[in-house]
Amino acid sequence: MSNLFSLNPSSSFPYLSPLTPPKKFSFWKAKPTFQLKKPALVTSVLSTKTDPQIPQSVQTFWQWLCDEGVVSSKTPVKPGVVPEGLGLVATRDIAKNEVVLEVPKRFWINPDAAAASEIGSVCSGLKPWIAVALFLLAEKSREDSKWKFYFEILPQSTDSTIFWSDEELAELQDFALHPRLKCFLLRLLGTQLLSTTLGVKEYVQNEFLKVEAEVILPNQKLFPSPITLDEFFWAFGILRSRAFSRLRNQNLVVIPFADLINHSDIVTTEDHAHEVRGPAGLFSWDYLFSLRSPLHLKAGEQVFIQYDLNKSNADMALDYGFVESGSNRDAFTLTLEISESDQFFGDKLDIAETNGLGETAYFDVKLDRPLPPAMLPYLRLVALGGTDAFLLESIFRNAVWGHLELPVSHANEELICQVVQKACKSALSGYPTTIEQDEKLIERGNLCTRHEMAVKIRAGEKKVLQHIDKIFAERESELDGLEYYQERRLKDLGLVGEQGEIIFWE
């Protein structure tokens, strides 16, 4: 969840708005079960002989791939035991952008596979991810499923925060706001990750109750084994963490074997990491999922891809169950809202929608990066009132956003600066630990995986809050030197010179 500003220009501080639902999400790149931030040495790689370090289920899965013709002796990668858990390891030197595996379409798990299955008749009209989730669970319960050996290597859960216990989530616990501030500005529920996790869990539960009542229970012949909420969460977690998207004509697809590939921050591009190409070669009757190595590798090194350059550490923790070190993924999402009680609500909403925003707008602020371009104009719009309200009149409608991209008035600019600073300071004072204390906890190196993730995300959010606070503090100190709407207007009319002097005529 994101923090919600509801600026009310009629008072010194905005009031609190109710918690908004989580932002719309989608399923992204594949990932393995467990992740590390840096490449590491491979413990063991599957060989033609039985390897005691490779789980029997993985050896059986590999034999199934061989029997089905998906892999052969020429395939340059095999499953290996790596610090992340399982990964794909080079069996020979691999060139940059070389194809390392190909998986025919008949093995893909996607909405098309669900539609063509026994449950396809009841999946029509469902959200794609729900149809695929039901398909996963239906196939998993079948002894004769084509994907039987694939299901046997899937984890029971990941380190995604949706699988954390209440005790683990307590590390992302709500902090206390000063009683006075609770009435005004901002609702900050612990880390954003906690709020988002709780929102996603509620969303998945509601979707389960709906599909259970409308699809599962009325069609018990198609679902002979009861599907529980925990199982539905498992399917959601598998899709969230392992599905590829943004492929040609494929928005949600799980690719067995390819989804063993791990993420690394040493890969700095998403280009050519995976693609779907047309029928060709041995599988001339089928489309192929083709995975290329973005790096040059030596035999024995692990193959990595970049899951998503734009995700924050909180996103990575929710989706994949890991975070990266460093500050590149530290981010904080500000959620700004036009209050329905604002006397200019209709006009402001019309202006926001005309410019691609809405009643609620989300802005991802990253550490040591400039503010999102539309954030200041939207803040000025939300705070607009008093003598500045004339800009909301219909005569300005086509030009008002251009005016909002620059300071409107001293009062308007001062309000948004003070409001944001008070919000950031309140949030920072409410955390149970300081950044320095969080960093000491991490340095000790004795935290469990999930506790360390929570501390890193917590520290990152605080750093971004300090970054935002600094930006608006500096801006407030410069208010007297800014040029506002009325001055710009007078200059346009030729009534004021470039130095602000009034121009007189004889």
From TrEMBL:
Annotated ranges, domain SET: 68-308
Keywords: Methyltransferase, S-adenosyl-L-methionine, Transferase
Coiled coil region boundaries: none
SUPFAM superfamilies with a match to the protein in the record: RuBisCo LSMT C-terminal, substrate-binding domain (SSF81822), SET domain (SSF82199)
PANTHER family linked to this entry: [FRUCTOSE-BISPHOSPHATE ALDOLASE]-LYSINE N-METHYLTRANSFERASE, CHLOROPLASTIC, UNCHARACTERIZED PUTATIVE METHYLTRANSFERASE
Family statement: Belongs to the class V-like SAM-binding methyltransferase superfamily. Plant protein-lysine LSMT methyltransferase family.
Protein name listed in UniProt: Ribulose-1,5 bisphosphate carboxylase/oxygenase large subunit N-methyltransferase, chloroplastic-like isoform X1
